[in-house]
């Protein structure tokens, strides 16, 4: 099932979107969906990260490097 959502953009952004669509051979809709998909994933990741930060800090994981050190 699909839902149609109407979004307004500043003129400059719409021009940029149209240019990218033409250059990449994708539709405006495909580009916006891809951008939103990435944004939503990043937001979920940030939310998860902030929830586990206190427990991670207690275990000595303060930076990304701490995590990479232990899983590498």
Strand and helix layout:
Blueprint: H1 11-24, H2 28-58, H3 64-71
Task: Please tell me about this protein's structure.
By secondary structure, this protein is mostly helical. The protein has one domain (12-71). The chain has helices at 11-24, 28-58, 64-71. It starts with 10 loop residues before the first helix and ends with a helix. The mean pLDDT is 93.
Mean pLDDT: 93
- Computed over alpha carbons, the radius of gyration is 19 Å
Q: Note poorly predicted spans.
A: none
- Please state the overall shape, judged from the principal axes of the Cα atoms: elongated
- The ordered string of helix (H) and strand (E) elements is HHH
Major pleated sheet: none
The number of distinct structural domains comes to 1
Structural class: mainly alpha
Task: List the total number of helices.
Answer: 3
Task: Report the sheet-strand fraction.
Answer: under 5%
| Helix content, binned percent | over 70%
Task: Give a brief outline of the structure.
It contains 3 helices and no strands.
Features:
single chain; 72 residues; mainly alpha; 74% helix; elongated
């Amino acid at each position: 099932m699909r839902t149609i959502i109407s979004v307004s953009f500043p003129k400059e952004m719409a021009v940029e979107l149209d240019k990218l669509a033409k250059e990449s051979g994708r539709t405006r809709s495909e580009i916006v969906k891809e951008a939103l998909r990435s944004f939503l994933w990043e937001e979920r990741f940030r939310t998860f990260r902030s929830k586990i930060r206190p427990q991670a800090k207690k275990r000595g994981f303060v930076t990304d490097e701490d995590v990479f050190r232990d899983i590498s």
